[in-house]
Fold this sequence. Notes:
This protein has helices at residues 43-51, 73-78; strands at 5-14, 17-27, 58-63, 66-67. It is of the alpha+beta class. Strands 2-1-3-4 form a four-stranded antiparallel beta sheet, with helices on one face. The chain starts with a strand and ends in a 12-residue tail after the last helix.
Amino acid sequence: MTGALELKDLRKSFGRTEIIRGVDLVVHKGERIGVIGPNGAGKSTLFNLISGRLRPSSGEVRLNGQRIDGLKPYEINRMGLSRSFQITNI
């Protein structure tokens, strides 16, 4: 059974520094998960990879079985995945 969202060996490097190291994740339809960690752990980078704001160095991001890594954020949004940003100046 495939998940609604799947990450397979997802990696992201900036120069020689590997920020995301081989993340594997399956989120099934209707399931809720939380991503927690200290500042600088890569949480925002992970969500930027999923939403298309960054391209992975390697690995796959799939939405409902279809690869979305490499697509533009608006294309991913049209497929049903969106993201919101924390507003800190209110």
